[in-house]
Amino acid sequence: MGRKWNNIKEKKAQKDKNTSRIYARFGKEIYVAAKSGEPDPESNQALRLTLEKAKTYSVPRHIIDKAIEKAKGGGEENYDHLRYEGFGPSGSMIIVDALTNNVNRTASDLRAAFGKNGGNMGVSGSVTYMFDHTATFAFEGDDPDAVLESLMEQDVDVRDIVDQDGLIVVYAEPDQFAQVQEALKQYGVTDFEVAEFEMLPQNEVTLSADDQAQFEKLIDAIEELEDVQNVFHNVELTD
């Protein structure tokens, strides 16, 4: 469970830095979700899930409203969801999810970020087979057994539940996201530290100090790109 927990810690740390960039990414993601169907979370599951995720990052209401109003107004911007795969120092693996209105720009920027920071792009499927697509929830608590019992009573299946440093972390099948989240709310969870889809590595790797420094530089360069929405990797970062 080490890598999974590190992943949660990374998500929590992201909330405390680069908030303007995070908000900009959510504005784009909310707009795309709202435009994909009715701009109403009650009837648009994609929008509802995106808003739930935005809530965990404390995205301001005016950013959410602006994105939805833009979709209601028939915004002409069209975005493509793209996934890129690559390698960092010592064969470390990286998955990059992007939302872009210019595929050539995104590919070029990513190729440059990898190439200038000790990495290289891979072909489709070269990395993802080593990761599991997972619905992940984390919230304050200290009794995972009680959570599991509640989920079982509601006839909800999950992959795993762990307790770590004051948080309970629940892993579930991606197609069970809405069902699990609703069941957790019925249990009494009102605030989620994490409520989103993850690509979790089946195996983690530990890098040397020099390689980790290079790896972190690579990840920072990727995350700075305007089209990048999420970055997943299989490195257990050490302090």
TrEMBL record:
Major place of residence: cytoplasm
Q: Where are the transmembrane segments?
A: none
Q: Is the keyword Transmembrane helix in the record?
A: no
* Residues annotated as domain TACO1/YebC-like second and third: 79-235
Q: Which GO terms describe its biological process?
A: regulation of DNA-templated transcription
Q: Enumerate the subcellular locations listed in this protein's record, separating them with semicolons.
A: Cytoplasm
Top-rank taxon: Bacteria
Q: Which UniProt keywords apply?
A: Cytoplasm, DNA-binding, Transcription, Transcription regulation
GO MF terms on file? Answer: DNA binding
Residue ranges of every copy of the TACO1/YebC-like N-terminal domain listed in the record: 3-74
Q: Name one GO cellular component term.
A: cytosol
Give the UniProt family note. Belongs to the TACO1 family. YeeN subfamily.
Listed name of the protein:
Probable transcriptional regulatory protein CD039_00870
